Amino acid sequence: MRKVKSARKLGRTAAHRRATLANLSTQLLLHKRIETTEAKAKETRKYVEKIITKAKDGTVHAQRIIFRKIRDKAAVRELFEDIVGKVADRNGGYTRVVKLAPRYGDAAKMAVLELVDYTEAPADAKKQVKQDRARRVRGSKKASEPAPEVAESAVKEAEPSPKKKTTAPAETKAKPSVENESAAAAANEESAPEEKE
User: Fold this and answer.
1) In the structure, how many helices (H) and strands (E) does the chain have?
2) Residue 111's beta-bridge partner residues?
3) CA distance readout (Å), 162 to 156, 165, 170, 183
4) 143-190 tens-digit pLDDT
5) Could you give the CA distance from residue 134 to residue 37 in angstroms, rounded to a whole number?
6) CA-to-CA distance for 85 and 63, rounded, in angstroms?
């Protein structure tokens, strides 16, 4: 009698499926958080939690078994040196799947797979200010104009403040124009020989 196998096939052959799960697990161990489709995230969660549980043994034999599945020295080193120390007191449940909005291109269900002990509190994250569409699109009329806040501040800077008096230095007031300078220089030359006689 045919029995149902619970694992998702992910539209791949067995070898391709193993490679996909190994790659996703490697990236999760290195970066602590990955964004992928919901089905791949749920399958990767099962795959990587078994690896982390095996790594908690801390033996050379466990390293060799894990290296058969992951094949990345940096990821295995990160797992044994850093991750195992943080999850030592946990009995499973090392990862979390957070669902996201559907992907724009094909409306695939998306999710974030992250290690529980490495997530930051949402209050610490800075809110991104949504930019006006006209400012994002190149060549639009509004994009070439300065922002209203910038324009207002530029006008305020250009206007003199009422407390400060703006007076030009005395040198600039008394300085003659270029034509007057040349006429004065010519008069000085003519008067100089007369004084000698």
Assistant:
1) 10, 3
2) 36, 99
3) 12, 7, 22, 40
4) 566 555 655 555 555 565 555 555 555 555 555 555 566 666 666 666
5) 32
6) 15
Q: Alpha carbon of 61 to those of 16, 78, 91: distances in Å?
A: 26, 17, 21
φ/ψ of 45, rounded to 5, equals -60, -45
User: For residues 56, 60, 65 and 69, what is the CA-based torsion angle, rounded to 10 degrees?
Assistant: 80
Is the pTM higher than 0.85? The answer reads no
Domains of the chain: 14-117 (3.90.1030.10), 133-196 (no CATH)
pLDDT digits (tens, 9 = 90+) for 41-87: 999 999 999 999 999 999 999 999 999 999 999 999 999 999 999 99
Spell out where 33-121 has E strands.
33-37, 95-99, 110-115
At residue 15's C-alpha, the angle toward residues 74 and 98, to 5°, is: 60
